[in-house]
Amino acid sequence: MSRISHSTLLIFLSLLLLLRRSGGALAGGWQPIPDPTDKYVVEIAKFAVEEHNNKTNSQLKFGRVLKGDEQVVSGMNYRLFVEANHEGGLDEYVTVVYDKPWEKLRTLTSFDKVV
Question: Considering the entire predicted model, what is its pTM?
């Protein structure tokens, strides 16, 4: 019986995670995220707010994820609608984050205020 390398196992487990989160969806289409309070989804939303703050010298404070969609690509795109506190008031933002956990890669693609 052959041995499975650690990196091969990590890639396999990451792909299983992506399929579980996407409901088995194929690459391309956006699928609704069934639970916007999921720990991993919230982690990605907090990352988006922090990255936006770092890039724009803002001081938004993460509130919550209102809803979101995910898209299987060569990783996963997350389009999240988040509430964040800005100067004492809550505003809604839409953000897209690209996530490729098996390469420890996470990138903020866009972050815009919903008007």
Answer: 0.76
